[in-house]
Amino acid sequence: MKTARPDIIVVSPDGEYLIVVEVKLSDSDLHNQNAIDQFKHLMASIGCSIGLIVFGQRIILLRDSLEKSNGESVDIVGEAKLPDSLLPPVDERWKGEYEFEVRVQRWLEELKLSSNVENLPHDLRKLFSESIINLLRLGDIRSAGPRWSRSGR
Predict the structure, then answer these.
(1) Which of 23, 58, 86, 114 is the most exposed place for a label (fewest CB within 10 A)?
(2) Cβ(3)–Cβ(33) below 8 Å
């Protein structure tokens, strides 16, 4: 099985993975389960118990109970619709996955402020419980690797 690579990571001051995030611009149901399975294996392999997958217009929260190996104890906690401000504009030229990853990362960084959390839609506020928000506040949110725009080629 191909191993997923996170796009965004949240790490503690001592370098521990608090949250891993994968961002996919497309919401293709055909590939979702495969991507989720790969992501579960990634979470288990790096010892991270919280994961977020962004598929197009929705975000999925996963949690590992750490009872089994190879991602078998990773469960989907729930999902919610992303805020419209994160979604690609219909009438503008969209630069693709790169820009979407950057937008998602900025949005997660903005959730460190209580006022931004309070403005979340109810389903997202419920999905991002106090414990998830606290991990975002505690950790350093950054790209998991180099990014470059494919539109310039």
Answers:
(1) 114
(2) no
Q: What letter does residue 144 receive in the DSSP assignment?
A: S
Beta strands at 58-64 and 17-24: parallel, antiparallel or unpaired: unpaired
Tens digits of residue pLDDT in 103-134: 999 999 999 988 888 889 999 999 998 899 99
Between CA 18 and CA 46 the distance in angstroms is 10
Structure tokens at 26: 């497309």
How does pLDDT run across 39-70, given as a tens digit for each residue?
998 998 888 999 999 988 899 999 998 777 77
The amino acid occupying position 93 is R
State the number of CA atoms in the 13 A half-sphere of 113 facing the CB: 7
Smallest CA-to-CA distance from 142 within 4, 15, 2, 3 is with 15
Q: What are phi and psi of 131, to 5 degrees?
A: -65, -40
CA–CA distance, 102 with 54 (Å, rounded to integer): 12
The pair phi, psi for residue 53, each rounded to 5°, is -120, 125
Does the pLDDT value for residue 30 go beyond 60?
A: no
